[in-house]
Amino acid sequence: MSKTYRLEEVFGIARDLPINYIQRADVDGTLVTCIKDNKHIVIHGSSKQGKTCLRKQYFKDTDSLLVQCMSDWDISGLYSNILKQLNYQLPQSIEKSKSFAAKGLTRLKAALGFASASTEVSLEKIDGEKKTLAPIQFDMTSVNDIVGVFKKAKSKRFVILEDFHYLPDRTQRQFASDLKAFHELSSVVFVVIGVWLEENRLIVYNGELSGRIVSINADKWNSEELHQVIHVGAELLNIKFNSRFESRLLAECYDSVYIVQEACKEACRIHGVQFTQQKNLEVGSAEDVSPILERIIQQQKARYLGFLDRFAAAFQEGEVGIHQLLLYPLFLTEPRRLETGIDLDTIMRTIRSVLPEYRNLREEPFRDALSMLTHRQVKNSIRPIIADFDTTCLRLQIVDKAFFPWLLRQNITELMARYRLTECSIKV
User: Fold this and answer.
1) DSSP annotation string for 248-293
2) Strand 117-125 vs strand 136-138: parallel, antiparallel, or unpaired?
3) What is the pLDDT of residues 93-147, one digit of tens each?
4) Is-above-0.90 flag for pTM?
5) DSSP state of 3
6) DSSP readout, 36-54?
7) Is 427 inside a domain boundary?
8) 187 with 147: CB under 8 angstroms?
9) Looking at the structure, do residues 117 and 153 belong to the same domain, yes or no?
10) Same domain, 260 and 330
């Protein structure tokens, strides 16, 4: 091998773009076409499935602006942080002409974030005559004002909103409402990156975005693509993974590129591979897969139990029973079926079949509880989020693929006892 690579550069989660990055026709190909078409782009999928790597591969610092979304931003907070990344400052004074001296005072109404601002301008004539004009308001919530700044500041072509799902629902909807105006009035292309599975979340928020944005599902990895990830990494390290190791890993990884990357790294460590090998070496065996997956999945145990603990907890007085009952379909649905999500009708049928005495349960309290699912996870510092509720299709979806093999390895009877499911009562 002409170059030596460290194991951590090839396999596993890294800050930089992994050097065993492979292109997926349905994902990379679609993104390249979207960039040429100048449409806004939504990249979505489960956590740790390659969304950020996709962004790093195609959007460079020279032509893009990156904003990491936060859970407490309203729309003005979002826009003010975009302007901060532009290093844009509101002018403090303006000179109009020789015969007029213009004096301005900018008041920022928030020490941080440019929450709102106004500029008082007075025009003073040379001969002493003075005219005072009404204050010129800069509205941080106005898409027209933000577009004006983009033009003045000569914004980069792409504005990337990473972790868009952390924004409050109201902020997401307001941004979707504004996105059509950004499309019509500016040349800036927004790239929205978020953890959810439904294809057209932003179009649901604003139907006028149809034809103006393209959604790319980065969640999809087929066996051939995962095989390429393994093969490219192995070549860089001058090793070959045992064929039975690879086949079993691909059968049990739930199409998670994160699990594949971590399992390959762990197998290399077991066989003493830390750098590119001088001589080609075979790594792994079928018997290695199960204990390796167990170690990877157990690293997430505290986070998954924390999610379930908070999911079942009383967020408000009288809600304990509702959230406890929602665990029934989560525990009783086979993990492979759980991959496609559980619609609200199935959730209610499962609960009613397990507890016939609750056959007259109303859906509304359960729908309301599920609608707050992402917000509750963010509030309780469960990051990345594990589950999401599609409020349009009314479907509960797991957005952390490692949760499936973890759940498969749990004693469901013990889990149900942990959350007192046989004892819970409900108030609706």
Assistant:
1) HHHHHSTT-HHHHHHHHHHHHHHTT--B--SS-EEE--HHHHHHHH
2) antiparallel
3) 444 444 433 333 333 333 334 444 444 433 343 445 555 555 557 788 899 999 9
4) no
5) S
6) HHT-EEEEE-STTSSHHHH
7) no
8) no
9) no
10) no
